[in-house]
Amino acid sequence: MSDFLDRLAARRRFGMRPSLDAISGVCAALGDPQKNLRAIHVAGTNGKGAVCAMIDACLRAGGLRACRYTSPHLVRINERFFVDGKPVDDVTLESAADKVFHADSDTNSQLTFFEALTAVAFIAFSEAKCDYAVLETGLGGRLDATNICAPEICVITKIGLDHCDWLGDTVEKIAAEKAGIIKKGVPIVLGKNDPEVVAVVKTRASEVGAPFFYAPDMADESEIPDGFSLEGAFNRENAVTALAALKVLGQLESVKGRLGPTLSDSLLKGFCNVVWPGRFQRVGRFIIDGAHNPPAARALAAALRKHAPFAGPVPTLIAGFCGDKDVDETLRILAPLVKKGIAVRTNNPRSLDPAELARKMESAGIPAISCDSIHLALEKMGSVPNGSGVDTLICGSLFLAGEALAELSAFPWQADRFDAAEILKV
After folding, report:
1. Residue pair 317/334 in contact by the 8 Å Cβ criterion
2. Quick check: 425 pLDDT over 80?
3. pLDDT of 96-118, one tens digit each?
4. pTM of the model
5. Which residues contact 81 (CB under 8 A, 6 or more apart)?
6. pLDDT tens-digit series, residues 347-356
7. 279: Cβ–Cβ under 8 A, 6 or more apart, which residues?
8. Rounded distance, CA 419 to CA 42, Å?
9. What is the separation, in whole angstroms, between the first and last Cα of the chain?
10. Phi, psi of 372, deg, nearest 5
């Protein structure tokens, strides 16, 4: 696995590429494995990974074999690739990667980091012969490497301002990029969004001849089964989007007999078995969330106000961010909800320096100190909570969420394999 990670990490030198030419060329050399997949293609700013996890869980609960590709990973890169509810093993990943790297060399395509991972997913899922592959875009949609798939349906979740340097500086521009996944004749399901986003997506659907469905018109929170396994009002909104997508999928002629237009009770039970760690997850005295941009911070703030098992602000915020995020606005949103902060470094090459982050916390009105790692921050806090219930919020990066879960022995998959050096590689 180390060789695979080294070769993968080397792909970072190619940066990001606003083109589908390289991924298309490599996949063509591999026999276009993506065309073997019954894909459910999901884009959005926030919530797209959770929607993927919900659809995956429901398909499996309904007796179907499902694969899932999401990003980023929290602890190990295997988490990006799921088959039958489990991360793909090292041997399978290495085998698929060998084929991808050989095709990349033969075509001189120089795949980027994310393009290589996407091609690996296409190979692994094609060989697994799944009934459905749930694919999450990495960035945007129109020029995202996943966009060479041939989907049964497309889904777009909540859209907000993020990656503005790549996608545009207004929600309309970002929505247009996300709507680039829409294809002729393929139904598009849009989650709850502001009117300007709805208008952009609906217009694009009309232009390409894609049936348009608005999730709030298709499903309702009352349909979410008791025992729904994820916390936070934003996850209930995501669940409505997933419900609508499953309903639309069941109506398609191509899948009749697999799902049916009326969702079965067994399929709906999948909502009670969704595992999506690091998203408003409570672990003892801690709430851990991967909120890393203003829209996610607003959702986290609303969830804290509505569901937090404590009165008043959280005593301590432990935060770590990648430097390319809108950290100032995110902290401004969270500031009224916390009393003090500890700024930490994340195990990612793009991590914001803790001292700089502490200064940003102070500017946002959060008295703060800096610490070089989440491990040292937890040591500094000690093991005794500052009172009963929740006393610490950990957020700012999904990489930080993964580190925290591993430190607290609360990671659901392969927790014994946590290796900070591996995260730093990829």
Report:
1. yes
2. no
3. 999 999 999 999 999 999 999 99
4. 0.89
5. 67, 68, 69, 87, 88, 93, 120, 121, 124, 125
6. 877 889 999 9
7. 50, 230, 232, 235, 289, 290, 401
8. 30
9. 12
10. -80, -15
